[in-house]
Amino acid sequence: MFDNLSDKLDKAFHILKGHGKITEVNVAETLKEVRRALLDADVNFKIAKDFTTRVKEKALGQDVLTTLQPGQLLVKLVKDELTELMGGDVAGVNLSGNPTVILMSGLQGSGKTTFSGKLANYLLNKKNKKPLLVACDIYRPAAIQQLYVVGDSIGVEVYSEPENKNPVEIAQNAIKHAKENGFNVVIVDTAGRLAVDTEMMDEISRVHKAIQPQETLFVVDAMTGQDAVNTAKAFNDILNFDGVILTKLDGDTRGGAALSIKSVVNKPIKFVGTGEKMEAIDVFYPIRMAERILGMGDVVSLVERAQEQFDEEEARKIQKKIAKNEFGFDDFLTQIQQVKKMGNMKDLVGMIPGASKAMKDVEIEDDAFKHIEAIIHSMTPAERSKPSLIDVKRKARISKGSGTKIEQVNQLMKQFEQMSKMMKMMQGPGGKNLMKMMGG
Ligand code: GDP
């Protein structure tokens, strides 16, 4: 996510390193590089210029030249400014109204239908809501079908009227259906076009007026950079929407959209989409994003995700097994599955401070545990619960069965051994507290 921008900003700050004394000249030079990095990330020229002007003013106001660690202060000022640029505070969804009506707008292909599903899934599981999805695209039967597939996958009902060619009526009928059947959130997915046109705008504006949604969300593909900003402006002029959803942030986006949209339409980014799966939705926290861009990681999100996946019962079982010396490969597999639920590896590495930079040239597979899982699956149940059984002959069989190299099997055995040792140590005197700290 935003690797290029992170890289360039890091290089900009390097100018200050190695200089015994910081001068106004090299601060200016650093900020020039910061500006260039922003422009390369497809941030609008004026926004980038104002950005560095503000940082410079603050830096001079705070005597950046005489502080002990001027480099760090400058990084902090840039972080604050990035946070501000992306919206400052976190903005939640307005869930007032019964039912709450949420209207989705945006171009075709922006990820509207996918996001409608993600939002329904989020509200169902995290906010205890009973959502209804509504298909209002009267032009593409495939779009209605797609919403059904999405709804099915998350167990959320979909409302549609395939014969009705009036989206206003469909939306109104859907709200009526929701009221009669106890749904407390109605998510209306609308038809998008490939580009902004008056017909589409007329249609969505009619639907908007008729159903008076509590939340009108504009969905945009982050990969489209400045175009995203222009489209946002066009939709905002008509709908005066409440928030922006940036999708496809998992891709190789330069970051321009995330950094510019707030300044142009003055509406917050509320969520981001980070993948095609229904779980790939994140509340947007400007400060956490700024920290990630500056390579400071995002430990808060990492811990939150770990907590979400943390299963207390499972942890207790594992702890007992360690105490009894019974921790085996099946337990190891369970642990891996828990980590996997937290998200894809690239994303997780990006949340660890400094890790993105350190691992910049390392190819991280999306499924980094593939080989480990294959190896464990090739073991017999007896081998899994008693790893000491695994001798050279068995190793060769496991390697063959799992399609991995013998070195990979050896490596896993070694890692497992080290991990078991460490776990035993944590059980010993002094270790108990550490386990407690980790939630055990
Ligand atoms: P719509 O036409 O606006 O309803 O867009 P869709 O929901 O059909 O999405 C268009 C394509 O983008 C589909 O292939 C989705 O799977 C994909 N997509 C949507 N959101 C994301 C995301 O956050 N990340 C990635 N990688 N793909 C996404």
TrEMBL record:
Q: Which InterPro entries match?
A: AAA+_ATPase, P-loop_NTPase, Signal_recog_part_SRP54_M_sf, Signal_recog_particl_SRP54_hlx, Signal_recog_particle_SRP54_M, SRP, SRP54, SRP54_GTPase_dom
What compartments host this protein?
Cytoplasm
Which Gene3D superfamilies does this entry report, sorted A to Z?
Answer: P-loop containing nucleotide triphosphate hydrolases, Signal recognition particle SRP54, nucleotide-binding domain, Signal recognition particle, SRP54 subunit, M-domain
Query: What are the UniProt keywords, alphabetically?
Result: Cytoplasm, GTP-binding, Hydrolase, Nucleotide-binding, Ribonucleoprotein, RNA-binding, Signal recognition particle
Its function, per the record, reads: Involved in targeting and insertion of nascent membrane proteins into the cytoplasmic membrane. Binds to the hydrophobic signal sequence of the ribosome-nascent chain (RNC) as it emerges from the ribosomes. The SRP-RNC complex is then targeted to the cytoplasmic membrane where it interacts with the SRP receptor FtsY.
What NCBIfam families does the record point to? ffh
Question: Domain comment text?
Answer: Composed of three domains: the N-terminal N domain, which is responsible for interactions with the ribosome, the central G domain, which binds GTP, and the C-terminal M domain, which binds the RNA and the signal sequence of the RNC.
Give the protein name, as stated in the record. Answer: Signal recognition particle protein
